[in-house]
Design brief:
Layout (H helix, E strand, L loop, with lengths): L3 E4 L15 E4 L5 H8 L10 H46 L11 H28 L1 H26 L5 H24 L6 H10 L12 H23 L4 H24 L44 H17 L22 H6 L4 H5 L16 E5 L2 E5 L7 E3 L7 E5 L2 E11 L1 E5 L2 E10 L2 E5 L2 E7 L5 E5 L2 E6 L8 E5 L2 E9 L2 E6 L4 E5 L4 E5 L5
Parallel strand pairs: 1-2, 4-6, 5-7, 6-8, 7-9, 8-10, 9-11, 10-12, 11-13, 12-14, 13-15
Antiparallel strand pairs: 3-4, 15-16, 17-18
Helix pairs in contact: 1-2, 3-4, 3-8, 4-5, 5-6, 6-7, 7-8
GO cellular component, one term: cytoplasm
Keywords: Cell membrane, Membrane
Subcellular location: Cell membrane
């Protein structure tokens, strides 16, 4: 016999309906799907007519549809609650607590600053300790390095909480770092006579690595390049103190570890360059003090209106009267000569020599003050011979014949400007040499890996002791170039210059060859052909 499934809504209460057959009592279904399965267990036999069964079937269908709608609504509400909880958690993590108008850093920014603090607490602290043990100029230099890294820390912290500013404001933000770098390098230049000069040079050559924040792509290799520049001098320190004082060896190790850790820090957090926050305010123009925006001043009042134009102006009346009188006289024609006065012979200068001598000075010239035609002498500038970064500056040298640049490096450039009647010797190997606006200058150098250039100069004598690939002469009058055997293959490029001679070594003497100054150009049917001309004489 078919069974009828009924539910007990309350303990002790049974709802069975008008269905024949034994009743099976089960627990209340926990979901609409279970209710659906129960309602479908309708017995196929029973009593009652077909109309009643149809109503029951319609009622069951409505209940099923309502149950399905309730289930879908419950799922949607559950998903909405999950989304709201997620958004709320994110907002709480990003906003945090606001203090002093500053926005807390995001999680990545805090990790970045923790890593930078680890660099300061580790390698930098050890470097400072070793520097204070050595003392003297090294200790002072180390304090400057410490201050520079603190400034960079402030810059990185600003970048984690602010959006990137415009280029002009960014340059202002980077200026404190640049000033500290310049201070460290200037300290080395002022203490060239120090017994710890190699220590100072190692720091001075590598401190530009702090400029990695301005490198757009892959700043890590830039820091490594600066670290390699420092090793040129740290190797000298190791050579001098390896068997004498181990503290200097520890100093080298601790200092180089700063840049090693810096490379690892950049690789982990700033592989492709400095990252700015995507949220928060735009970074201010000052790194330490954000100046409040000043209210706009009101515009100045308009200028007063011009005075009213009237015909009663005395100046205008006077000028109009004079012009009217002039036109009246011109309209007289030939009758205008009737108003001329007769001059007697005693008043004519060509007949009275005494009047000629008196007429040399006029009334106007007597009252005119004599003008001084003596020009003011040009201000003499102080001579310069110094290394500025990787650039040797030799400027405004007069009557000096013992100028020498001894300590040179491959990446350095020598710039010689406005030196007259002087002699300069450059030892070692440099990248390039430029002679600009000089007169009667003698120059002797060993090796140049790039180009030697002379421009806007006069009476220059140049001697190459080693090798140079290219010599360029522009807008120069008078140039003597003494080549060595190693530099005979160099290229000589000249433009707008004259009196150029190249002296080539032959046996124990030099042979002179003039550089052509006159050229002949002809059209060969398809192009212009230019060749030097030889003057027959």
């Amino acid at each position: 016999m078919p069974q009828s499934v009924c539910f007990a809504n309350k303990p002790g209460h049974l709802f069975a309906g008008d269905v024949p057959g034994p009743v099976v009592l089960v627990s209340e279904p926990s979901s609409p799907k279970a209710q659906l399965s129960c309602f479908l267990l309708e017995p196929k036999t029973g009593f009652g007519n077909s109309r009643v069964r149809g109503k029951r079937r319609d009622l069951h269908t409505k209940i099923i549809k309502a149950s399905l709608a309730m289930e879908a609504l419950a799922e949607r509400l559950e998903q909405a609650v999950i989304r709201l909880e997620t958004v709320s958690a994110k907002l709480q993590g990003c906003s945090g607590s606001l203090s002093n108008g500053e926005i807390n850093t995001f999680h990545g920014g805090s990790q970045c600053m923790e890593a930078f603090d680890h660099l300061l607490r580790g390698p930098l602290s050890e470097y400072l300790k070793n520097s204070r043990t050595i003392g003297g100029d090294v200790s002072k230099h180390a304090d400057m390095v410490h201050n520079a890294l603190q400034v960079q820390k402030a810059f990185l912290k600003l970048a984690t909480t602010h959006q990137e500013p415009a280029q002009t404001e960014l340059a202002d933000l980077l200026r404190p770092i640049s000033e500290h770098i310049e201070q460290i390098q200037t300290f080395r230049e002022k203490n060239r006579g120090s017994c710890l000069f190699n220590h100072l040079s190692a720091v001075s050559e590598s401190i530009p690595a702090l400029g990695w924040v301005a490198v757009n792509q892959k700043p890590g290799p830039y820091v490594k390049e600066m670290n390699d520049a420092a090793m040129f001098y740290t190797n000298r320190v190791l050579k001098d103190y390896k068997d004498i004082d181990p503290c200097h060896v520890e100093w080298v190790r601790s200092y180089l570890s700063i840049w090693t850790e810096m490379q690892a820090f950049i690789k982990q957090h700033y592989t492709t360059g400095l990252l700015w926050s995507k949220t928060g305010p735009v970074a201010p123009s000052s790194l330490f003090t954000a100046e409040p925006a000043t209210p706009c001043l009101p515009p100045p009042p308009p200028p007063p209106p011009p005075p009213p134009f009237t015909d009663e102006d005395p100046k205008l009346d006077n000028g109009a009267a004079q012009r009217s009188a002039l036109f009246t006289q011109l309209n007289q024609g030939e009758a205008i000569t009737k108003g001329l006065k007769h001059v007697c012979d005693e008043q004519k200068t060509h007949k009275n020599p005494a009047l000629r001598s008196q007429g040399g000075t006029s009334q106007a010239s007597k009252g005119r003050a004599p003008s001084s035609s003596t020009p003011t002498p040009a201000k003499k500038r102080s001579p310069v011979l110094e290394l500025e970064g990787k650039k040797w500056r030799v400027e405004h040298q007069e009557q000096v014949h013992d100028l020498v640049i001894e300590e040179t490096e491959l990446k350095q450039v020598v710039y010689i400007f406005s030196c007259n009647n002087s002699t300069l010797q450059i030892k070692g190997k440099v990248n390039s040499i430029i002679v600009d606006n000089c007169k009667k200058l003698g120059l002797v150098f060993e090796n140049v890996v790039g180009i030697f250039e002379i421009i806007n100069s006069r009476d220059i004598q140049l001697q190459v002791l080693g090798k140079v690939p290219t010599i360029s002469i522009n807008k120069t009058e008078g140039c003597q170039v003494y080549l060595s055997k190693e530099s005979l293959s160099c290229e000589i490029i000249s433009a707008k210059s004259s009196e150029m001679n190249i002296l080539v070594p032959q046996e124990d003497d030099y042979r002179e060859f003039p550089v052509p100054e006159q050229f002949k150009t002809v059209w060969d049917g398809s192009k212009l052909v230019t060749e030097p001309t030889e003057m027959a004489g």
